[in-house]
Specification:
Layout: E1 5-6, H1 8-15, H2 19-27, E2 34-36, E3 39-43, H3 44-54, H4 60-74, H5 83-86, E4 92-93, H6 101-114, H7 121-134, E5 142-144, E6 160-171, E7 179-187, H8 191-205, H9 208-214, H10 220-236
Parallel strand pairs: 4-6, 5-7
Antiparallel strand pairs: 1-3, 2-3, 6-7
Helix pairs in contact: 1-2, 3-8, 4-8, 6-7
């Protein structure tokens, strides 16, 4: 539940961090929380959003820890394929014919709609635009994970990923000013799946060489196979 309250020990377990590190972050105002007489109180939804905003800065080993903690907390199988399982049969576009940020968003949402995954296409478009205005989802050089800020349980048929590669780089708001070519539209029906997907993708895409390899794809079939291989690799090498 997004409004669920957690203490320092629970947050440390959730994020696979030392409790002293959580307290240090809280004391410095670097993680959302509220000071109480006995310590700090955290809202799970705010912690989840904090993780999301840190994806482009955290080291690779931290992703693995976060995913492990989230998996245990929510009862996920940490060794199960996730990204590959959420991409529908016609959910990859190589190439994704778009030259602007708006065109990318529209093309990805249209592809999701064509796969019969949406109940309200216009609302999803608006939610994703609002999320991008809040903070760009370009998390790594060449990669962006556009998604609504909150899960949309009543506007999508099921959780899904839509993936596209544009022929050339597009300004998508990356912090370093780099252009983006690889896009993952992430839409989940609940918070726990949303965070789990983001953590798994962050692990898969943290290595620039892995991204470069995906960008060599010449067809949707090749991209699907490379994503499957990459996901299996990170599951076999959790560090």
């Amino acid at each position: 539940m997004p409004h669920e309250q957690m203490n320092e020990r629970q947050v440390a377990a959730y994020l696979s961090m030392d409790e002293r590190e959580v307290i240090k972050l809280a004391s410095r105002g670097q993680i959302p929380c509220r000071k109480t007489g006995k310590g700090f109180v955290f809202r799970k939804g705010e912690v989840d959003h904090w993780i999301e905003t840190q994806l482009h800065e955290l080291p690779k080993h931290r992703f693995a820890g976060i995913e492990q903690g989230v998996s245990q907390y929510h009862g996920f199988d940490p060794e199960a394929l996730l990204v590959s399982a959420l991409i529908p049969p016609n959910g990859l576009a190589v190439p994704l014919k778009a030259r602007t940020r708006e065109a990318v968003i529209r093309s990805l949402v249209t592809l999701a709609n064509d796969n019969g995954l949406l109940y309200d296409k216009d609302r999803l478009l608006e939610e994703i635009r609002e999320r991008e205005e809040l903070c760009s989802t370009a998390i790594a050089p060449g990669v962006a994970l556009p998604h609504p800020r909150h899960p949309l349980p009543y506007d999508i048929a099921e959780s899904f990923l839509i993936v596209g590669i544009t022929p050339s780089g597009i300004p998508f708001g990356a912090a370093d000013g780099s252009l983006t070519r690889l896009f993952f539209l992430v839409c989940c029906k609940d918070d726990r799946t949303h965070l789990h997907v983001l953590a798994r993708l962050a692990r898969m895409l943290h290595d620039a060489a892995a991204t470069d390899n995906l960008l060599t794809s010449q067809s949707p079939e090749e991209l699907r196979e490379l994503l499957l291989q990459l996901e299996r690799f990170v599951l076999e090498h959790p560090g």
